[in-house]
Design brief:
homodimer; about 270 residues; alpha/beta; 60s Ribosomal Protein L30, Chain: A; Alpha/beta knot; 2 domains
């Protein structure tokens, strides 16, 4: 296809730009992020998100979904680049890169744009440091039919390659918002919303707790958990049984166990 | 302390040996694995597992738990090495290594050694490829008071640094077994045991399903799920609601959601 540009050199400026998107600082400056793999890019396309720039490996297998993606990108005025697998490896940082990657503009993550009535359930991550946990929480949000994920305070970058990968496409379908706690709490209190913390202090059992929509489930930092004053500001503190030596679950696991319990309470028809 | 050996060179054979343990092939040949961080090593010690070799960074903060660990290792005839942070970084592959790491002999993972009556609940992972998922599943096993994790077919290495790290110490407290499916199924059928698959086919809702102890919850490969004939061989197929675009959860998440549901059925007193 004549519209494809072929790039074979590692020092090409476009290759340098693409590689730079693996770095948080550059993503922020450019307002762009990278997603890789035909499945993820197809999820994006079906959710109405097209990459501005599509990079494909030469010698990849033909696939009708890839052809459709390419056509849509070109029709929307985007750019399509062909390159070698070695260069794609450098771009994605993977030994066996999937045959395609795309560059997307970052989404608006302002709290103001979030419609709390859009879903009965929301996940909230506070100072979450592991991008894989953020991606997995987005994926769980999709599975429980949540509205999205709200990131409080200093979280890992949800637009990192690791987070986007772990989200399995949910980065394109779930709402994502970022806020400081002292911005989030007034926003929450300005409308209906139940704030629920996973907690070990003065908590009720998570099973059968009085969840109410719209329900915001807050999971704290992987090592420190949620600050005590945040917990105290919550409407409900629930505890998950811990029967072993450890006193905590993986953060994404805790979020999912709570989310499925809340789902059963808020949408009993989902359990049929 | 006179019993500490100081190593300052990257080319020292002990450093080379330690670095080699980051590689699956070398771990297998040596029958040894690496665990890092004072918290993990203290968990090991409290579970009666001491490293044969303890490596500490020079200039680390003193800590009574580290002193206790060192004393126990020496008393048990183990070796203690001091080295620079730069070398510890090379050994653990981390930019900011925790100030201590230890070498442990791999545990016996034969199915024959497993006492199914020891716990009401077991997790089973089939062809799980992500070591982080294996570690997280071990951590969940600990949390629900499961007996341990059984790895079927070609799984990632549970003794990899990533799996050990994600287990948060559960690698030292949970039983771990490895088997092929055609070895596992006869073993299971030779005694009491309910085999439960997370499934989309002919399944009942996971909530309120008739779980029975000892209950073995099987989670399949991250991409392909469980093979159909494995599913058919299970006593119970349960389905977790999927309300979004995707048709699956992260494997460790699915395991935890099922494990907590089964726990509530099998040990209702745990929910108090």
């Amino acid at each position: 296809m004549a519209d494809r540009r072929l790039i074979t050199g590692f020092s090409n400026p476009t290759v340098k730009f693409l590689r730079s998107l693996r770095d948080k600082k550059h993503r922020k400056r450019e307002g762009r992020f990278l997603a890789e793999g035909l499945r993820l890019l197809t999820d994006a396309r079906e959710s109405g998100r097209l990459p501005e720039l599509l990079v494909m490996a030469r010698g990849r297998d033909d696939h009708p979904l890839l052809a459709a993606l390419e056509a849509d990108v070109l029709a929307a005025g985007g750019e399509v680049i062909e390159t070698g697998e070695d260069i794609l490896e450098k771009i994605t940082g993977k030994d066996n890169p999937q045959a395609v990657a795309g560059v997307f503009p970052e989404f608006d993550t302002a709290l103001a744009g979030l419609d709390r009535a859009a879903a009965p359930l929301w996940l909230v991550a506070q100072a979450m440091r592991d991008p894989g946990n953020l991606g997995t929480m987005l994926r769980t949000c999709d599975a429980v039919g949540a509205g999205g994920l709200i990131l409080l305070d200093d979280c890992a970058d949800p637009f990192s390659v690791e987070a986007v990968r772990a989200s399995m496409g949910a980065i394109f379908t779930q709402r994502l918002a970022r806020a400081r706690w002292d911005e989030f709490l007034p926003w929450l209190r300005a409308g209906p919303g139940q704030l629920v913390a996973a907690s070990l202090r003065e908590a009720v059992p998570y099973r059968g707790a009085p969840y109410a929509a719209p329900c915001f489930l807050v999971i704290g930092n992987e090592s420190r958990g949620l600050p005590e004053d945040y917990e105290q500001a919550c409407d409900l503190r629930v505890t998950i049984p811990m029967r072993g030596r450890a006193d905590s679950l993986n953060a994404a696991i805790a979020g999912a166990v709570l989310a499925y319990e809340a789902l059963a309470a808020l949408a009993p028809e989902s359990q049929a």
